[in-house]
Amino acid sequence: MRLALLFVLLLPACLAKPFHQKGLFDFMLEDEGSADMPPTEDPILTGFGPVCPFRCQCHLRVVQCSDLGLDKVPKDLPPDTTLLDLQNNKITEIKEGDFKNLKNLHALILVNNKISKISPAAFVPLKKLERLYLSKNNLKELPENMPKSLQEIRAHENEISKLRKTVFSGLNQVIVLELGTNPLKSSGIENGAFQGMKRLSYIRIADTNITSIPKGLPPSLTELHLDGNKINKIDADSLSGLTNLAKLGLSFNSISSVENGSLNNVPHLRELHLNNNELPRVPGGLGEHKYIQVVYLHNNKIASIGINDFCPLGYNTKKATYSGVSLFSNPVQYWEIQPSAFRCIHERSAVQIGNYK
Amino acid sequence: MKEYVLLLFLALCSAKPLIGPSYFTLKNVMLQDMEDDDDDDDNNSLFPTTEPIIPLIPFDLFPICPFGCQCYVRVVHCSDLGLTSIPRNIPPDTRMIDLQNNKIREVKENDLQGLASLYALALNNNKISKIHPKAFQSTKKLGRLYLSHNQLTEIPINLPKSLVELRIHANKVKKIHKEAFKGMKSLHVLEMSANPLNNDGIEPGAFEGVNIYHIRIAEAKLTSVPKELPSSLLELHLDDNKITTIELEDFNRYKDLQRLGLGNNKIKDVENGSFANIPRVREIHLEKNKLKKVPPGLPDLKYLQVVFLHSNHIAKLGVNDFCPTGGRKKKALYSGISLFNNPVKYWEVQPATFRCILARNSVQLTNFLQ
């Protein structure tokens, strides 16, 4: 009955120009078939083509869609986009076609959403993607098939408990990898996970549950940040091969021993942070270290300081002078330290022993 | 790679203070839209010629990149580090500092001292409740300032006049002082949604002399369209407020407006002639309001292509609600009209109502799944 009425109603429309009678007819019929379906939330824009999504700003190929309460990636993004900022939204999932035309995209910012799922094909079109920011989401694992062009990956504050080898395979351009604040355990890091990342220079796995320095880190590494973990011991070989390492952050762990020889593996170390641990003594090998300039050892259990803990025996062979040594908040009393323990330090203020500000 | 090793080697041999790893090969997209003012010294930035500022504290003598941060091509990346204050040792030639997702509470007087080249500063997702009035004294080139998701109660005073984009989403801003944007001749984008701002919080004259193109004050406490926003506006987004009516003079100043977002308000009426003030508008969003009929004046908007009216109380559609009559013509056909979730019955709609649409599926009258 209703259908018949519809026909009658639509008849005059067939003659009207330039009206698209068939189209209207079609969509009304579609509705007939799905009368009790939930309402659609997304109106369709037709023939609009790629355009700056409403409420976003598009300027110089940067598409800025942060803070909009979006629950999905907007459609029809301009294909020449180089930077897409979608942070602070409510996106729950990255679907296969979400980035389909964005072959010029260099940076993708998905920080602070609710993403728990990324389709394995989602990133495939992004042949030029260099930076991928996934921090503050609900990911349980890093996505598969990340673009080989990536230079920087940030996945801070997710629910990542596993790092599988296949996830990083082929990612040989990555320079920066940030994986802090995840429920990651040492057993969750697959053997050789970082193998092949031959340009990796900076890695940060802070505030996780790992209990040891990850194995198989690439020799290209210059910075290793592992603060706020549950590491209790530095094994002699745990830093082996890291000949380019310049900065090592291990503060806020529960390290009670640094095996002799550990620091010999990192001959170019400049800065070592071991504050807020359980160390009973100054780690061995600092005296012979040629380039070390900053050593943080405050808030430990160091009860005494040996005369050769920091400076080389005999002739000063150091190539860089200390600029910061912190020892405050340790049981050692400053009057028990022999002044010659710091004989290779020319700047008196470079050493902080007392608890002053 | 070879160059990298060479540089490292050089740095080691000369035993200068350590400079952060040289990611000079990293192309920086973030900076692509920045003014290329003094760009020719990019490589020199690896070996800064000036001494770090505030060398009073011993540890400041040392590295030219804060520990845990990454410094490359004059970008200092310090996000997600749990920092409680802005780090010292920021290289003085830095163009962009990313400090988002930390625990910074305050921007202090000297935190940004000497950063004369700084163009972009991201401080979003911190706990900032205080910005010292002199904090931005040195940053005379700052164009983009991101302060979203902090605890600010007002637009900070003495922001640099050079600002192009200011984002203060999700703070506690209740007030925009008369002087807040004074002299900001280049300010183009202002995003200050999700703040408890009402109409009285905007002091008269606050937007005088500024040329903002895009303003978004969504998720606030506005009860009417603010009338004193800049006349340069191309986009005005006021969704998720408590606006009840659109009055004749509301858009008086905004002659160039192209996109208007008023979705999810409590709008019952649109006064006759209101839209005649914005003849160039291309897109009007009025979904999720309390409209009983299609707002008047749409047929006269020659460039209007998108009208969202879904989820209102519209019970009837007039045959001339959308399209012009007589010899008058639209310059652009409608590409999206949404009318679903309204009490109007589709069989009561005269098909000729939509005689000026672009394609068959440009109109959504009823609920259906795609």
Automatic annotation (TrEMBL), chain A:
The keyword Kinase does not apply. Its main location: secreted. Disulfide bonds join 52-58, 56-65, 311-344. Residues 1-16 form the signal peptide. It comes from the Eukaryota. PROSITE patterns: LRR. Pfam families: LRR_8 (PF13855), LRRNT (PF01462). InterPro entries: Leu-rich_rpt, Leu-rich_rpt_typical-subtyp, LRR_dom_sf, LRRNT, SLRP, SLRP_I_decor/aspor/byglycan. The keyword DNA damage does not apply. Coiled coil: none annotated. It is found in: Secreted, Extracellular space, Extracellular matrix. One of its GO terms (cellular component) is extracellular space. Keywords: Disulfide bond, Extracellular matrix, Glycoprotein, Leucine-rich repeat, Proteoglycan, Repeat, Secreted, Signal. Residues 51-83 form the LRRNT domain. Binds to type I and type II collagen, to fibronectin and TGF-beta. Forms a ternary complex with MFAP2 and ELN. May affect the rate of fibrils formation. Belongs to the small leucine-rich proteoglycan (SLRP) family. SLRP class I subfamily. This is Decorin. It comes from Apteryx mantelli. The gene is DCN.
Automatic annotation (TrEMBL), chain B:
The lineage of its organism: Eukaryota, Metazoa, Chordata, Craniata, Vertebrata. Its main location: secreted. Disulfide bonds join 65-71, 69-78, 323-356. Keywords: Disulfide bond, Extracellular matrix, Glycoprotein, Leucine-rich repeat, Repeat, Secreted, Signal. It comes from the Eukaryota. PROSITE patterns: LRR (PS51450). Belongs to the small leucine-rich proteoglycan (SLRP) family. SLRP class I subfamily. This is Asporin. It is found in: Secreted, Extracellular space, Extracellular matrix. SMART domains: LRR_TYP (SM00369), LRRNT (SM00013). It comes from Apteryx mantelli. One of its GO terms (cellular component) is extracellular space. Pfam families: LRR_8, LRRNT. Residues 1-15 form the signal peptide. Residues 64-96 form the LRRNT domain. The keyword Secreted applies.
